Fold this sequence. Notes:
Strands 1, 2, 3, 4, 5, 6, 7, 8, 9, 10 and 11 form an eleven-stranded antiparallel β-sheet that branches. The protein is mainly β and 181 residues long. It has no helices and eleven strands.
Amino acid sequence: xxxxxxxxxxxxxxxxxxxxxxxxxxxxxxxxxxxxxxxxxxxxxxxxxxxxxxxxxxxxxxxxxxxxxxxxxxxxxxxxxxxxxxxxxxxxxxxxxxxxxxxxxxxxxxxxxxxxxxxxxxxxxxxxxxxxxxxxxxxxxxxxxxxxxxxxxxxxxxxxxxxxxxxxxxxxxxxxxxxxx
Length: 181
């Protein structure tokens, strides 16, 4: 398994999201109160603060207390979340996305891809922990198919402080002093 921290600085998901209500929109809804399962189908939009999921179908299971598990499927399903204290988002796409509110992980299955800024990770299975900002990605490659099912990553170089430059065309030229004899 390849574990990547895509950034040099730790970045977390927007912490206030957990305190926000969860809102869902869909074409259809089926609720099974006895088993604590809700099924939303047709252009589903789930939001909680800055966290959002879009999918063809979302199944939400309430386990205990406020703990929820959501499974979103689509072609692809997607999620997006603002990073805490930054004007930057992490976004992910996959055939299936599972969200666990207890440990704040988002798991992507089937052609998974996560992006943050110019950084990107893709693989068959990706786990993103929104508390730590750590991505774990695995491929499902086989030895007989080199390059297929492998994990891919693009990590941008860190911004380096810029050094002041001297414009040579305007720099003072030294001229020898004339001797008056």
